[in-house]
Amino acid sequence: MRALFIVDLQNDFCPNGALPTPKGDVIIPVINKLMDKFDVVLASKDWHPEDSGHFNKWPKHCIQNSYGAEFPAGLHVEKIHKIFLKGTSDKDDGYSAFEATNENLAEYLRKNNIDELYVTGLTAEYCVKQTVLDSLKNGFKTFVIKDGVEGIYQNENDVENAFKEMEKAGAVILTSNDIL
Predict the structure, then answer these.
(1) Confidence grade of residue 103 (pLDDT, cut at 50, 70, 90)
(2) What does the pLDDT look like over 31-67, one tens digit per residue?
(3) CB-based burial label for 155 (10 Å; 0-12, 13-18, 19+)
(4) Is the per-residue pLDDT at 91 higher than 80?
(5) Among this protein's residues, is 127 annotated catalytic?
(6) Catalytic site residue 62?
(7) Which among 8, 12, 25, 46 is annotated as catalytic?
(8) Which of 22, 93, 131, 169 stands 20 to 30 A from 160 (CA)?
(9) Domains along the sequence of the chain with CATH
(10) Is 82 considered catalytic here?
(11) Which pLDDT score, from 0 to 100, does residue 90 have?
């Protein structure tokens, strides 16, 4: 079975959020179109406590139960089967969805006979990349839907280098047109 996985598509990572991706909202229509093409749709959320040590490195973002931690308007959230929460302790950065604390993602995928993970979401150079690398380490065939991913772009080549690193590790990079 195939699953579409949406990494951290949350208000605080969209334009005007606390830690924005310049075009984070552009991927919403792409992801919405893809949802019906998969057996299962899963998502992760950064879910940081107010006093997270993570905020020593980053601006405060995606604080538990805040507007910034919610999915943005326009995303078809009713089609998401399960949400994996990460970064939930004061010591946990939670870059990878495989670090989720509410349920073990690898176990969930295996239990539900999901062997192919198609990854979209925010941010390419951090949470998307770590989720993809951990997916591969856990033995799942992993695809990254390039037009369904955006980055923070702190440095000029970060996003491009993240895609190269994911591909070198074994991920297949494709576009939504390859699926639609």
Answers:
(1) very high
(2) 999 999 999 999 999 999 999 989 999 999 999 999 9
(3) exposed
(4) no
(5) yes
(6) no
(7) 8
(8) 93
(9) 2-110+123-179 (3.40.50.850)
(10) no
(11) 77
